[in-house]
Amino acid sequence: MNDEVVNIRPCYVLLEQCTPKAQLALSAELRNVINERNILTSKSKEKFLSALDEINSTDIETRRKKRKHQAVQEILSSEMAYLKQLEIIMNFFMKPIQSKGIIGQEQFEILFGSIDNLYKVNGELLNELKNDLMSVSAAFFKLAPFFKMYSVYAYDYKNCLDTLKNLYETNKKFTGFLLNQESRPEVQSKLSSLLITPIQRIPRYCMLLKQVLDNTNCSEPDYDILKDSLKKLEAVARHINTLVEERENSQRLLELLRCMKNGKELVIQPGRKLIKEGILVQTIPKRNNTEKVYLVLMSDIIMLCHIRKTNLCMPNSLKCHSIYPLNKCKVTQNTKTKMFEITCHDESVVLHHQKVQDTDEWIDVINSSILKCIRNRNTLRKGSSSRRPAGKDNLRPYMDVGVSPGVSRIRKRRRTEENVEREDGKMIRYDDSCDGVNCLPIKLSCRKSIHKDGSDCEDRKDSLFPLRHHFSKEIDVVGVDEPDKETPEVDPSVFVFGNENVNSNRGFSFRLNSIFSGIKRAFGFKSDQ
Amino acid sequence: MDGIIRITVVGDGNTGKTCMLYAYKDKKYNDHHSSTVFDSYSMSIEIDGKPRRMILTDTAGQEEYDRIRILAYKECDVFVLCYSVDCRISFLNVRNKWARELMKIKPNCRIILAATKSDLRKIYNGCVSTSEGLRLKKEIRANDFVECSSKLLLNVDIVFQKAVIAAIHPHFVKKTKPKKEECAIL
To answer: Does A309 touch chain B (CB under 8 A)?
Structure first.
């Protein structure tokens, strides 16, 4: 109680300006009397004093300070409670399990592997908080980077839960132990709910810090650090969130893979994410009937599957019948029939959901995914831009091409485009050995790098950029070594692997050939000399 | 059923979830000092003469982090889904966001729909009415609907009593739940 009196005291000075003195004296007198004499029970004394405090702290400033103090106190008390929970896990579960050897070391690591570390980090935080209560901001600022540990924990949490469930069902000794420990008066909680507390802790820190920040004036010295710490913690929370999301996404993709009868090779691709999936009704105008299809929207393709079994969790329940590259898709909505059509080149499909609301949601999701896909493609190494929808008969080539699925439509025309570019006098020559579809991404990026002026080559981040940059430096060195020969002006932006064109600087290219052939071989490019 | 009933309170931010939990736990409402964090709280209750354990969990602060939130759902028997009567957005979010999310994670989960801050009806106009709440209850197929006020300590106990009832009588509840259409398993 005494602490509180000290804290409140400054407000008396503030209040004197506007409040009558007599009233003040009374409340102060009352307080003194109550504190000096033991006339009330502790509960009513507390009540009385807090009521007095309330009268005193009519001033906004004082109230704010009091609230801040309370918020800080809450951080401390909740931190202690949290550490206690971690201690319960350690003392009542980890230690006995390890000493009795109830489960294997591997499973133990999965279940409790990072609890120790979390305990250490939070023990440190508590020490910092205890040292100086008002330096909450500094304590969090100091320890914020270590909270990344929590993302490791969150990432493994699902695995941990599965292991726990598995052990619960198979290991009788473990089950008995668990039931016994969980009903102990000190524990009184389930291990699974204890294990989730670390994950929920970070958002709570955000809330607690926000509470402190809300009650801090921007003129106070710790305001900026407080704001920074809050930002850092929010970033950690978001990081945990995205990690868990990615993990779930990839797991769901694997599950989907298990359900599919064909086209398994198509589903998992680097960088591909599952966005939405679900049952939609397809209208087939030719046969004038409808059919349920399973639509899987991923970050770069739309996959349409036939439903072969009612239980969609079973293996072989889905059969993929077409795949549309997302960047070539268009969605047109028919407001009358409440349906939407996905068009991709000359293929199209008319779909709707049983609920109108969900149909709209699907349209929104697909449209935004298309936009995102196109936007992402602009900054990414590209697959074939001429991907075509693949149907029943030509699913096979879709599988074969790997990175850039789809049947190339205009391979011949591209050849003519190359020729046109060569006539510009640039040193472009496409290595013939790279003609396979697999090399398309490299080809495309080469072609893209040609600029008529070639001035801002540094800015262009194509797939070969770092390499090319490196090479252009080497070329300079060669030029200095032999000044008698004309130093060729090499436009680094147009440098490509393979032989240079005949009509440009033959001598230069011969000299470089010896240097590059080794490098080329190292990168696995065939030389056709 | 392993004797422990786990109740989780969900709903939009600022609907008074934490406050309701504190009101139930401490049986009092403190206007001047409201805590920010409610650590999960375990209490024993007696049902049909048998002692049972009840664990209350709060999800406050996790509204923005959907994946973190979802992790906690698996460990739960009954959800108390909150909206506040003075905030229509929180009411709409029950249908658009929360009920969907719960159904997706736990298709057969038991939900108690709770309208919080019912004391504010007297002060503000345009609050979400009782009949609207009842309609929503039917729509999301919640097990029960309670209007409560943590400030007046009104009906707060009933919210949790109904949650316990829903947890221990799952079969009774299932009968009243009409099965309209099959849910897509996602």
So the answer is: no
Nearest Cα residue in chain B from A158: B71
Tokens read off for A202: 């970070």
CB B37 within 8 A of CB B27: no
Q: In this structure, what is the dihedral angle of CA atoms B112, B113, B114, B118, given to the nearest 10 degrees?
A: -150
DSSP B97: I
Q: How many CB pairs under 8 A join A and B?
A: 94
Which two three-digit tokens encode residue A455?
A: 């001035």
Q: Considering chain A, what is the average pLDDT of its residues?
A: 72
**What is the per-residue pLDDT across A89-125, written as a single tens digit (0 to 9) for each?**
999 999 999 898 888 888 899 889 889 999 999 999 9
pLDDT in tens, A356-382: 888 888 999 999 999 998 888 887 665
Reading the block at residue A368, the tokens are: 């935004």
**What tokens were used for A331?**
């969605």
How many secondary structure helices (H) and strands (E) does chain A include? 20, 7
Residue/partner pairs of A35-41 with CB below 8 Å, 24 or more apart: A35/A1, A35/A2, A35/A5
DSSP secondary structure letters along A211-234: HHHHTS-TTSTTHHHHHHHHHHHH
Q: What is the 3-class SS of B128-175, one letter each residue?
A: CCHHHHHHHHHHCCCCEEEECECCCCECHHHHHHHHHHHHHCHHHHHH
SS3 A410: coil
Residues in chain A: 529
Give the 3-state secondary structure of residue A237.
helix
Give the three-class secondary structure for B8: strand
Q: State the greatest distance between any 2 C-alpha atoms of chain B, in Å, as a whole number.
A: 48
B contacts of A81 (beta carbons < 8 Å):
39
Helix (H) or strand (E) holding A276, with range, is strand A274-284
ipTM here: 0.85
CB-CB under 8 Å, A70 with B68? no
Distances (CA, A) of A99 to A94, A104, A107, B35: 9, 11, 14, 39
Adjacent-strand bridge partners of A425: none
Residue of B nearest to A53 (CA): B32
Type of residue numbered A209 = L
| Spatial CA neighbour of A47 closest among B32, B111, B108 | B32
Please report residues of A whose CB lies closer than 8 A to that of B32.
50, 54
Nearest CB neighbour to B36, from listed A74, A157, A158: A74
Nearest alpha carbon to residue A273 among A237, A301, A244, A241: A301
Contact A399, A265 (CB under 8 A): yes
Residue A245: Cβ-neighbour burial (10 angstroms; 0-12, 13-18, 19+): middle
pTM of the model: 0.66
The residues of chain A scoring below 50 in pLDDT are: 1-23, 401-405, 408-507, 509-510, 526-529
Using an 8 Å Cβ cutoff, are A24 and A12 in contact? yes
Closest CA to A445 of A300, A457, A424, A270: A457
Q: For residue range A61-73, what is the model confidence (pLDDT) as tens digits? A: 888 888 888 888 8
Give me the DSSP letters along A29-56: HHHHHHHHS--S-HHHHHHHHHHHHHHH
List % helix, strand, coil for chain A (3-state, nearest 5): 60, 10, 30
Strand partners, B154: B149
Partner-chain residue, chosen from A74, A196, A313, that has the shortest CB–CB distance to B35: A74
Nearest one of A407, A411, A444, A425 to A489, comparing CA atoms: A425
Nearest residue, CB atoms, A189 vs list B55, B65, B74: B55
Number of other residues whose CB lies within 10 A of the CB of residue B104: 15
